[in-house]
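Case study 2.
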Amino acid sequence: MSRDIIQRNFLCLIVQKIGTFDAPKIIDTRLAEDYARDTALIPSSRRVSHHSILNTLQEKPQDTPIGKTVVVCQEGHKVSHGAAAVLRAQGMPAEVLSGGFCAWREQGLPLVSLQALPEKHRQAGLWVTRHRPKIDRIACPWLLRRFIDPDAHVLFVPPSEVLAVADKFDAISFDIEQGEITHEGPLCTFEVMLDHFELHSAALTRMARVIRAADTNQIETIPQAAGLLALSIGLSKLYRNDNTQLAAGLTLYDMLYLWARDGVNETHDWPR
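Prediction:
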């Protein structure tokens, strides 16, 4: 098998894993000058200097059942190979993205832009919204964790305190009137967040239609929206703790995403 085919196959495997609970941890070790020329990121990747790669060993491991870290540099040479070797020497399974970031971009694969966020927000990694979350306020944290910032922390506070908490804690307010990312016209916050981070795919767009219909009481327009609304209300009744509810809700949106990506043509019936 040629190296080009192996590279394409590995890229496709990573694409299939992104957005799912068992996605690998992706570490972007591009040099500062390379990143400055192209500030887009592979979805869910973290920016880590190769000089501080050992700091990743001190982090609590993500939920990564495949137990793997993928290291990315500009072209898949010395920086990523060295960083991956450091991780492996400490017992952490790590692979190099063959061809690096350049190969990913050349293949036209999904990218995410964080440039719309002020630097202080990128550093803090805090988001804040109304407590007792439903629909958008579970869907948006799912999008953040699975595609944008796997280390994002979401704060749930009373509606009257959201904007003040955002100001005091350098957090990004969402899904609330006058919030930084919230409903715009007919679009729900999930859709606005997709636009904000320039993150689009057929699956996410299909998923967004279901979320908007469930979130804005238009369940008659999308058949799946009534099911999402019912499950969301049940989830809220099941859990009184917002963070516990979020943890459980992430699985719900994992399932919705996989339906939107791989299962829209499947049906189920009783044999006749």
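Strands lie at 25-28, 46-47, 69-72, 94-96, 126-130, 153-157, 172-173.
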